[in-house]
Amino acid sequence: MGERLKKDNIMTIPNLMSLFRILLIPAIIWLYRRGDYKQAIVVVALSALTDVLDGKVARRFHMVSDVGKVLDPVADKLTQVSMIFCLSSRYQRLWVMILLFAVKEGIMLYWGYQTLKVRDQINSAKWYGKLSTVVLYLVMTVLFFWQEIPDGLAWFLIVFCAGIMLMSLVLYGRFYHGILKMHFLDTEVKQKDEKTISKTI
Fold it and tell me: What does each C-alpha distance from 122 to 27, 64, 102, 175 come to in angstroms?
């Protein structure tokens, strides 16, 4: 664990980009709440750009770190929550999305913690998690920018986004279940081998 928290693993360019995205969140909320929608979109676009760049930089220059694997999705989730929060002033029933988001991330946090305990390893985001992030960003951006969007279309996009989030949760569930199942099977085999050895001694 100490190796993961070394300065060289924290103060990397990708991690600083993730921190920058977190610092942009108050600006997004402030601009949107005061009605500066275009400026808010510009800040969201800047946040999305750094989100793309930090991953490319980390892989290209071998700056992938466990701190980054945690910090990057945290920056994503906080940005997404801020966008949903802003839009909830226009779409009051959007609290259902906030609830779904909170439940999904809570379950993901629990699964991640359990696998960290058994494997001492932090898993990177999977394609379905990235898809969920991209769809949520796109839908929230459309709703941010298109102020006169028909309600029917707006709610179709919101429901579609919720469906992708649920799909991501189910696929992550299968992924983490496979890891935990393999760990418990390995533990059972080791215990049986130890019992067999102790009987033969």
Answer: 30, 12, 21, 13
| Spatial CB neighbours of 90, under 8 Å, sequence gap ≥ 6 | 143
Name residue, tokens 């945690």.
Answer: 70
Cα 151 to Cα 83, 141, 144, 148, 194: the distances in Å are 18, 16, 13, 9, 64
Is 88 in contact with 101 (CB distance < 8 Å)? no
Whether residue 22 contacts residue 78, with contact meaning beta carbons closer than 8 Å, is answered with yes
Q: How far apart (Å, rounded) are the C-alpha atoms in residues 6 and 15? A: 13
User: Phi then psi for 77, rounded to 5 degrees?
Assistant: -65, -45
DSSP letters, 88-133, are: TTT-GGGHHHHHHHHHHHHHHHHHHHHHHHHH--PPPPPHHHHHHH
Q: What are the angstrom distances between the C-alpha of 3 and each of 6, 58, 65, 66, 198? A: 5, 18, 10, 10, 37
Q: CA-based angle 43:48:51, to the nearest 5? A: 130
Compute the residue count for the chain. 201
Per-residue pLDDT of the chain (201 residues; tens, 9 = 90+): 444 445 445 778 888 999 999 999 999 999 998 988 889 889 988 998 898 888 788 788 777 777 877 888 889 889 988 988 888 888 877 888 888 888 888 888 888 888 877 777 767 778 888 898 889 888 888 888 888 889 899 889 989 999 999 999 999 989 888 887 876 666 665 666 555 555 555
